Known about the structure:
A hairpin with a 4-residue loop joins strand 5 and strand 6 (272-275). Helix 3 packs antiparallel against helix 4 (108-123), helix 15 (519-556) runs parallel beside helix 16 and helix 16 crosses helix 17 (630-651). Helix content is 39%, strand content 22%. It is α+β, with helices and mostly antiparallel strands. It has 23 helices and 31 strands. The longest helix has 48 residues, at 47-94. The strands form six sheets. A six-stranded antiparallel beta sheet has the order 12-11-10-15-14-13, sandwiched between helices. Strands 17, 18, 19, 20, 23 and 24 form a six-stranded mixed beta sheet that branches. It has a five-stranded antiparallel beta sheet with strand order 6-5-9-8-7. The chain has five domains: 70-204, Beta-Lactamase (2-Layer Sandwich), CATH 3.30.450; 255-348, Beta-Lactamase (2-Layer Sandwich), CATH 3.30.450.20; 361-547, 2-Layer Sandwich (Beta-Lactamase), CATH 3.30.450.40; 558-647 and 656-785, Phosphatase 2c, domain 1; 790-926, Histidine kinase-like ATPase, C-terminal domain (Heat Shock Protein 90).
Amino acid sequence: MSGRSRRPWARAAPPPGTRWPSEPSRGRRPWPLRGRRLKPSLSVRTLAAQVFLFQALIMLMLVAVGAAALVVQGRYDAEHSAMDRSLAVAESFAHAPGTAVALRSPDASALLQPQAEQVRKGSGVDFVTVLDRHGVRVTDPDPALIGTKAQGVGRAAAGETFTETFHGRPADAVRAVVPVNDPSRRVVGMVTAGIEYANVGEVLNRQLPLLLGAAAGALVLAMGGAALVSRRLLRQTHGLGPVQMTRMYEHHDAVLHAVREGVLIVGGDGRVLLANDEARRLLDLPEDADRRQVPELGLGPVPTRLLVAGEAVSDEVVPVGDRLLAVNVRPTAPYGGGQGLVATFRDTTELRALSGQAEVARGRLSFLYEAGVRIGTTLDVRRTAEELTEVAVPRMADVVSVELLDAVLRGEEPTGAVHAMRRTAVRAVRAGHPLQPVGDVIRFVMADTPMVAALRRGKAVLVPDLGTAQDWRAQDPEGAQAALRYGIHSMVSVPLRARGVVLGMVNFWRGAGSPRFEEEDVAVAEELVARAAVAIDNARRYSREHAMAVTLQRNLLPLGLPEQDVLEIASRYLPAQSGVGGDWFDVIPLPGFRVALVVGDIVGHGMQAAVTMGRLRTAVLNFSSLDLAPDELLGRLDEMVTRLDTQSADADDDRVPLTGATCLYVVYDPVGGHCTLSRAGHLAPAVVDPEGGVSFPDLPLAPPLGVGGHPFEAGELDLPEGSRLVLFTDGLIENRGRDIDEGIEMLCSTVARTDRTPEETCRALVERMLPEHPSDDVALLVARTRLLNPSCVAAWDVPFDVTAVPRVRGEVTRRLADWGLEEVSFTTELILSELLTNAIRYGAPPVRVRLLLGRTLVCEVSDGSNTSPRLRQAATTDEGGRGLFLVSQFADMWGTRYVTRGKVIWAEQSLDRAAEPDPAVLFDVMGL
């Protein structure tokens, strides 16, 4: 065989896990897609992306050309290597000693075939074939070809050795043909050896993966370098394209050199890197300013210091030559540049005067704004006047005085008489001013003075130079001389007006060291006084309304505590700072020496709350006259509140509703110290025993008045003599600075002292628990209990029999004698006989008689019936019906009260005088 091989070259197997270059990695993206960091540079609109694509194309072309050249070179080298190997094998076999001899033997194939195969296998060629001198195959790797004639060996038959790339049958190959010569140099045969062309490419194929791998590595390195360069370029160009960069630099140059503001960039070494045209003009820089040190530019000490220091500066005005430049300096490091700074310069020479005027105007506006905030913080007329002087001194004037009409100070409407005012406030920058003190009456009687002129004209009057002005001295020449000696030299007098009415006068004075007043100051003074006038008028009106409300409320509250002997009572009422409220209290004497204590709280503040409180207090007084139990009284009061609120809602008026009002009603009985309490939404009272122990009884709590739907219940206490009851509204224990628990603790610690009287206890509670101006009004009652002496109480159980009346009457007479009350014995017997007889005739058992002796004498007859006797005018023909009339004539007061079982009819007589009924009336009643 002279053209192909039966054994292909061994192909190198890849290591386990290795993929051929033609096999893409499974589950992975190609390399460019994995470079996520380069994603911003992949947009072809940016300069960085275009540079990257251009470099990638160049690298790809270079790698492709290099790889192709390496492939061609490899194939060329493989062919020549095959030719050299084939030539060496052919020459070695042809020149072997036995080859020529074997060719002349009769059976050359038998001799040479084994040797040729041995040489082929040992040399690594595809075939070794021996030909005779005619070109017929003597040996061949394929025995079937022995005896056939080989092609293209004529040159070797002529004695020429050659190598070639053979194309023909049986296969294309790279071969060498060498003639075999006998000793006489005659050609006796030929030897051809070679490698099939397909196996020559196999060598190249074994080299191709390494070659392509090297090419791919080179491409990856080249692309990575291009990506890094593009990324750096992207960061430097900020993702701009060529057109955008060109436009940006054009705009940069246009702005840098056209802007009317100097720009100077200085590097970290202190050298000038850039200066635009305006900076060169403003700083008068030399032509060679670039790359020169800042101190060499001759800018002057101040701008040189700012540029050398490298610290941030904002709008600092510095002189440079004959200009005033506003300099701003910022370091470049935080903004992506290296160490250095950027300074801008703006010419402010012409704006300096205007900025000074603007600064003055801004200062005046700030002054007026501050005045609006600081004047009128309270609703007190005098304090508002003081705030005006505090604001004006020293920013507006050195001395300021405020005079107000007396009517304004009293909260009344000002009258037309404005020639006498009271100095309300005065303030000066230094002590010892010569003006009249606060409280003096200032009279404006001279028509030529600036003050009178200002009042007459209704606007400010300016006296720029008091030293040359004579009119202002006319009223008080000595005071004027003292003011001049003090240094006062200029003044502005402004009338204080609100709603077109003069309230007072404000005078501004300037002394030594201050410039004189100008027209611009007059406008500021008028605006300042106008704002103060509104605040003073509001305070005046509030004072008037507050005084009216306080007067109304105090007239609606008890003007004095009623006389009674069983309780030592002290009280306090303090209106809130924001106005009067609806808190109230009352002390109501009841029959049988009992006393009712009442404390209530109305929702809201102001005049309406005070009126509402008066309505509720009147209702409680009326219900108390019926001598109702505390729970029954609150029930009726609740019904009344509900009815009145319903009527108010139907009438669609704006009155304060009663619903939500709270009330605590306490009835104290000195006979045994029994106390009955009921409350509607109110705080329980504090009970202080004689040893100082403080407790809050657990009383049934009902909703506030007007809520409805809940019954009222009463609680009962037995108080030893000397105990104290403290009734209060929530304003005493609650405020913005503490909660209710803390307030109760303070109250307990204050009232626990046993050596204090009720009056002292009230004073201590107010001083400790209330601020100077409480936010809520407070009603407070403190009562110390006393017991009625047992010797002053007499009681008899009466059989339900009319015949028992004389006996009881006799025992009552003897007891009155023991008490030394013989002068009222007859009257008492008459009253007792009538009441006792009615109880037995018309009542039900049990019947009981009780006498109570105090500042008056009380006779009580109780029975088990709920029927109430009724006073009527008996006819002349009636046999009865005159008993109660006689009782009403002889007793000072009488009445009926209901108890748990039955009723009590009582009659009270004064001990200082005996009742003297009209005899004519008695005769008429008796039918005489």
